[in-house]
Design brief:
It is built from two helices and no strands. By secondary structure, it is mainly α.
Length: 53
C-alpha cells in the first residue's frame, strides 16, 4: 500500500513531466521552423530542391 502523499507527489511529477515534454516539443518545432526560414534566406536553391522533393 502506497502512501497517499507519495501517490499525489507521483501524480504531480508525471504531470510536470508531460508538461515539460510538450513544452520541449513546441520549442523544438519553433527552433526547426526558424532554422528552416534561415536556410530559405541563405540558400534559395536548397529550399527549392527541398520543396520539390
Amino acid at each position: 500500500r502506497t502512501h497517499p502523499s507519495l501517490s499525489s507527489l507521483f501524480q504531480v511529477l508525471s504531470f510536470a513531466a508531460s508538461l515539460s515534454i510538450s513544452l520541449y516539443r513546441s520549442l523544438a518545432r519553433a527552433l526547426a521552423f526558424s532554422l528552416a526560414d534561415r536556410t530559405l534566406e541563405t540558400k534559395p536553391e536548397f529550399s527549392a530542391r527541398t520543396i520539390a522533393g
